[in-house]
Amino acid sequence: HDGLLAEGTYPERDFLGGAYDGALSAARLETLAETPYLYFLRYVLGVRPLDEPALDEEPWFNRRRRGTLLHATFESFMRRLDGEPPSLEHEPLLREVLRAELEREIERVVPPSRVEEEAARRQLLEDARLFLRVEAERAAECTPLYHEVGFGFGPYRRREGDLGEVALPVGDAALPLRGVIDRVDRRPDGSLAVWDYKTGSSASFDEAEPVQNGATLQWALYAYALEAATGKPVASSGYYFTSIAEMGVRLAFEPSAYRPDVEALIRRLARLARSGSFPMNPKAKDIGRWQWGGYDRLFPDLAARSKELAVKAYPEGRPRPPWLD
Which of 31, 53, 78, 169 is 20 to 30 A from 220 via CA? Predict the structure, then answer.
C-alpha cells in the first residue's frame, strides 16, 4: 500500500489502495483513528450496506436532514447580510430564508403529515432564532469572513470561492487534505477563528482532551488547512452547537498548542495503515460508529463481540491504534 504521507509530493494512489480522489477528509482520518476495521470495510474494500427499507426506516425529519437544513439556512442568511452585522431586526429575513430551505426539503422528501411538517417548522425556527440571538450578541467580537468554504477539491468538485489544494506539512512529508469549513471569522487582531456548526449534543466532546486519540481531529485539521491556504494565523477553532438544547454553546481550542500531538498522531495512523492492521475497537463508543453507518448488521450482537475483543491480546510487533494505550 502507498503511504499515508507523501514524501514531498502527492501519492499516485489512495494510501490504502482505494480510488484516489486527491486528498483525505478529516472524517476519514477520524474513522481510521477510532474504528480501523470499519475504515477497512468502507474505504479499502468499498463495502456498503445494502438498502433494507424495513431496517432503514427513519423519521421524516431525522437529525441528519435537520442538520443539513440548518447549515444551509445559516449559510444563506449570513451571505444575504453581505457583511452587515447580524441583529435581532434581521429576524424577518431569517424566517424567509428558513422557509425557502424547508420548502426545498419538502419538495425533495414529502412529510408524512401536516402535523409533522409543522412540528419540524417550529423546531427549526426555535433553533434559527437562537442562532440569530447569539450572533447579534457577539457581532462586535468578530467579522464573518467565509461560509461553507471548501479546500482540497479537484476541478470537478470545486465551488466558486473555494481555497484550492492544501497539503499539511507533517515533518518532512505532506498530507493532502480536503473538506468544507462551515464558518470562518476574522477577529479584531486580524487572526482567524474556525467554526463547525453542530446541531447535536456536546456531550461526546471532551474539553480536556479535544483530539480524543484522533476521534475529533476535524477542528485541528481545518485550522491547519486554513493557515496553509491563506497564510494567516488561526487563533481558535472549534464547534458551535446551535440547537436550543445546547443554547448556542461554543467549544474552541488554540490549534498551535496541539499541533505536535496532531502530527504525532497522523504519523501513528500512517504506520497503522502501512502495516495493514485494522482492528475492531472494543470500546463502547465504537458501537455508535457501527450503528450509524448500518455496518452493525455484520455483527448482530455487537456489544457481545466487543466484550470478547476486550479480553484478547493485541499482536506484538504490530503498530498500535491510538485508543489501545
Answer: 78
Q: How far is residue 269's CA from residue 99's CA, in Å, rounded to a whole number?
A: 44
pLDDT at 54: 52
DSSP state of 6: B
How do residues 57-88 score in pLDDT, each as one tens digit?
566 777 888 889 999 999 999 999 988 899 99
DSSP state of 90: G
C-alpha 93, offset from chain centre: 28
Considering only CA atoms, which of 179, 217, 215 is closest in space to residue 289? 215
Return d(Cα 100, Cα 98) in angstroms, integer. 5
Cross-strand partners of 168: 175
195 in Cβ contact with 240 (< 8 Å): yes
Q: How far apart are CA 138 and CA 323, in angstroms?
A: 38
Cβ neighbour number for residue 21 with a 10 Å cutoff: 14
Q: Grid coordinates representing 92?
A: 424577518
* Pairwise CA distance, residues 268 & 271, whole Å: 5
Q: Report whether 142 contacts 188 (CB < 8 A).
A: yes
Query: What's the pLDDT tens digit per position in 170-199?
Result: 877 788 899 999 999 999 999 999 999 998
Q: Are 217 and 259 in contact (CB under 8 A)?
A: no
DSSP string, 24-49: EEHHHHHHHHH-HHHHIIIIIS---P
Query: CB neighbours (10 Å) of residue 55?
Result: 10
Per DSSP, the residues of 181-198 read EEEEEE-TTS-EEEEEEE
- All three cell numbers of 238, joined, read 472549534
Tell me the per-residue pLDDT of 248-262, one tens digit each, with 9 for 90 and over. 889 999 999 999 999
Q: Return the C-alpha cell found at 258.
A: 496541539
Across 306-312, average pLDDT: 82
Greatest pairwise CA separation for the chain in angstroms: 64
Radius of gyration of the chain (CA): 21
Q: In this structure, are residues 199 and 240 in contact, taking their beta carbons and an 8 Å threshold?
A: no
